[in-house]
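Predict structure. Input: DnaJ domain-containing protein, 165 residues.
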Amino acid sequence: MHPLGLVLFAIIALGSWYWWQAQPVDQRRSASWKIILLLVTIGLLYLAITGRMHWLGALIALVLPFLKQILPLLLRFFPTLARWWQSQQQKRQQGKTNHRQRKAGNRSSMTEAEALDILGLKSGASREDIIRAHRHLIQKLHPDRQGSAYLAARVNEARDCLLDE
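Output follows.
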């Protein structure tokens, strides 16, 4: 770090300390956050000026803490952005609902006979047998072990079907 930058940073930190001491006790927490933001801002500006950080990165880092206050302003001044934001929220909610419906629908689509056939079990298999057969097959078919995602999903579905009943 350049000596002049270090001296300036120390002077600002010392001034901030004295300002913090002058604050009433009940306002010191708020003053602490202001000081931290000030020191981080100065540090980022220093890094941007000396070329150790891209100026755009410093700008983004400075805006992030204020994003919660800036977002409502942006939404108020840019109605198109507000409509887009609302549509994204609705899509997320619909996606969650559709996922739950698909998951619930898949359980009822497989019969017990199909599930037993997939796991290679006979009717009347115990819970331990189902779990053991599932574990054996999923070790072979899991996508992380170069297996098929579809087959692994079918094996999981068969286990869920048999264990739910």
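Helices lie at 3-22, 28-49, 55-63, 67-77, 79-109, 112-119, 127-141, 149-164.
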